[in-house]
């Protein structure tokens, strides 16, 4: 018996499979087929991702597909689905693009992943490992949407995706937040008084605006000086510095 399986989803969820050999039952993607839908789940104990879509096929059951098998799936351009065929005795194959890859499912019990998902959010901010966050950005590129973290203090935080309602995740925060650097760090040391940001400028936007105003003033001085000088002047494009930095760039903190 067989079902149609999404190769794109397998690749995305496989990013969350554990690499620890001692936790072999997490070294792949858990796939469960029921009348309610086809579910893909993977977790490494720090992050989790689950995806669900409609079932297309007769096979009902569950298995854990080894992560290395999924990595070796290399469908041609435009090929997004394959056929998962149950051969019996824990043996399966995935057929796609005139290819068939056989494998032995991981012999283990996948944990009850739904218990990991938080049922509420405290709204208390937390810090997260940047490498963990990058996984969800990669999912967004593969499946669409954009990740939204529902902060939950030191508890696991729910991750949802805007415009992608069939995918959900969870991420553990850093238990011991990093200490904020003291004021003696090099980036707090100004070379001239003119470079100092006004103490009243307490936001990124205000600091950038101050920088833009300074650049406008500098360009006006250079232009005025050029009128009285025979030395050729290098004119930087508006909105940038001679070094090529774009002062109009903004950080999205939404």
Question: Could you characterize the architecture of this molecule?
Answer:
It contains four helices and eleven strands. With 254 residues, the chain is α+β, with helices and mostly antiparallel strands. The longest helix has 24 residues, at 204-227.
List keywords for this structure.
2 domains, alpha+beta, single chain, DNA Polymerase III, Chain A, domain 2, 20% helix
Summarize the entry for a quick read.
By secondary structure, this protein is α+β, with helices and mostly antiparallel strands. 20% of the residues lie in helices and 28% in strands. Helix 1 runs antiparallel to helix 3 (130-143).
| CATH structural architecture of the largest domain | Roll
Number of strands: 11
CATH class of the largest domain: Alpha Beta
Distance between the first and last residues' Cα:
47 Å
Number of domains: 2
Strand order of the largest sheet: 5-2-3-4-11-10-9
Largest sheet: 7 strands, antiparallel
**Strand content of the residues, in percent?**
25-35%
Q: If you compute it from the alpha carbons, what radius of gyration comes out, rounded to the nearest whole angstrom?
A: 26 Å
Helices and strands: which structural class? alpha+beta
How many helical stretches?
A: 4
**What is the CATH superfamily of the largest domain?**
DNA Polymerase III, subunit A, domain 2
What ranges have pLDDT less than 50 throughout 5 or more consecutive residues? 232-254
Binned, the helix content reads 10-25%
Indicate the overall shape: elongated
- SSE topology string: EHEEEEHEEEHEEEH
């Amino acid at each position: 018996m067989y079902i149609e399986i999404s190769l794109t989803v397998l690749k995305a969820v496989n990013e969350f499979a554990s690499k620890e050999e001692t936790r072999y039952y997490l070294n792949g993607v858990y796939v469960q087929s029921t009348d309610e839908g086809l579910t893909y789940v993977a977790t490494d104990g720090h992050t989790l991702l689950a995806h669900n879509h409609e079932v297309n096929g007769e096979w009902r059951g569950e298995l854990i597909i080894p992560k290395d098998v999924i990595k070796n799936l290399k469908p041609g351009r435009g090929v997004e689905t394959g056929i998962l065929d149950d051969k019996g005795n824990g043996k399966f194959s995935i057929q796609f693009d005139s290819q068939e890859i056989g494998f032995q499912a991981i012999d283990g019990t996948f944990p009850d992943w739904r218990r990991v998902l938080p049922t509420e959010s405290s709204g208390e901010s937390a810090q997260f490992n940047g490498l963990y966050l990058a996984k969800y950005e990669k999912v967004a590129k593969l499946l669409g949407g954009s990740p939204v973290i529902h902060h939950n203090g030191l508890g696991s935080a729910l991750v949802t995706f805007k415009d992608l309602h069939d995918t959900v995740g969870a991420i553990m925060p850093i238990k011991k937040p990093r200490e904020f650097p003291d004021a003696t760090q090099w980036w707090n040391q100004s070379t001239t008084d003119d470079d100092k940001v006004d103490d009243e400028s307490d936001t990124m936007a205000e600091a950038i605006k101050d920088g833009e105003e300074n650049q406008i003033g500098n360009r006006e001085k250079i232009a005025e000086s050029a009128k009285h000088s025979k030395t050729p002047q290098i004119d930087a494009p508006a909105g940038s510095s001679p070094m090529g930095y774009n002062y109009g760039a903004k950080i999205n903190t939404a």
